[in-house]
Amino acid sequence: MSDDSRKLTQSARGDINSFLNKVAQTPRIKSAGERGRLIFAMDATASREAAWDHACRLQADMFTETAALGGLDIQLCYYRGYSEFEASPWISNSQDFLRRMTNVSCLGGYTQIEKVLRHAVAETRRKKIDALVFAGDCLEENIDELCRIAGELALLGVPLFIFHEGHDPVAAMGFKQLAELTHGAYCPFDSNSAQQLKELLGAVAVYAAGGRKALENYNKRQGKEVLQLLQRKP
Q1: C-alpha distances in angstroms, 132 versus 6, 8, 221, 222, 230?
Q2: H-helix or E-strand containing 40?
Q3: Strand pairing partners for 43?
Q4: Is 175 exposed, middle or buried, given 0-12, 13-18 or 19+ CB atoms closer than 10 A?
Q5: With contact defined as beta carbons under 8 Å apart, do 160 and 121 qualify?
Q6: pTM for this prediction
Q7: In this predicted model, what pLDDT tens digit does every residue of 89-124 receive, in sequence order?
Q8: Cβ 19 vs Cβ 186: under 8 Å
Q9: Which residue among 12, 34, 62, 71 is the one 20 to 30 A from 168 at the CA level?
Q10: Where are the domains of the chain?
Q11: Percent residues over pLDDT 70 in the chain
Q12: Does 208 or 175 have the greater pLDDT score?
């Protein structure tokens, strides 16, 4: 392995461990028999087509990992084009979720992250959601307004977990602010990170369904360095 590749791997490992530590520290109290609720939001503009295909292959694990915890209900949200924003009904199994994802085609346009955040606020006011996951590659909106809405999510106790594809520095700076404001976490990934993304999505899903204790058990079961989450206490 070249020095550059080794540095890149070490950097990615640090980003992942930091992300997972933050997930482990996020408060989540689960009542007996309560199903977790998670919004899975994605940028479906044209630049995201390959990443959307990756997500389709990985999504089943979010349901599999949480089945023994009482289950997980997931709502798929996405935006594309110049004004289109869609939110599915709440879905409780991977087959229905995959069917909805594979029926979506990516379409060029601008980001609509504000709509994602506003939707999460409105949804959790109807019934509490445990986490908002967002995957995207750029940010083309007013960061001050996005931060204001993220503050509302924080007051409602909804952490935002952001997966950032690519290396856009403007997006990175904005995404980190949004995650921090909501007491969530930020992690970059690329097209070579499919296995890492699978593990990260699994960890967030387990957290949403079962809280910190379930995440501890997930860590032990996986037995991988990437899931050594609990170095710091909340």
Answers
A1: 32, 28, 25, 23, 22
A2: strand 36-43
A3: 79
A4: buried
A5: no
A6: 0.81
A7: 999 988 898 889 888 888 999 999 999 999 999 999
A8: yes
A9: 62
A10: 36-219
A11: 74
A12: 175
Matching CATH number, 36-219, of 3.30.420.10, 3.40.640.10, 3.20.20.140, 3.40.50.410: 3.40.50.410
Comparing CA positions, the residue from 131, 203, 136 lying closest to residue 174 is 136
User: Can you tell me whether residue 44 is helix, strand or coil?
Assistant: coil
d(CA 135, CA 52): 9
Instruction: Assess contact for 181 and 156: CB atoms under 8 A.
Output: no
Residue showing tokens 């408060």: 27
Tokens of 193: 């990170």
What digits encode the pLDDT tens for the residues 73-82? 999 999 999 9
Reported as type and span, the H/E element at residue 163 is: strand 160-165
Residue 94 and residue 134: Cα distance in Å, rounded? 18
Helical (H) or strand (E) element with 23: helix 3-25
Q: Which residues contact 204 (CB under 8 A, 6 or more apart)?
A: 23, 38, 131, 133, 161
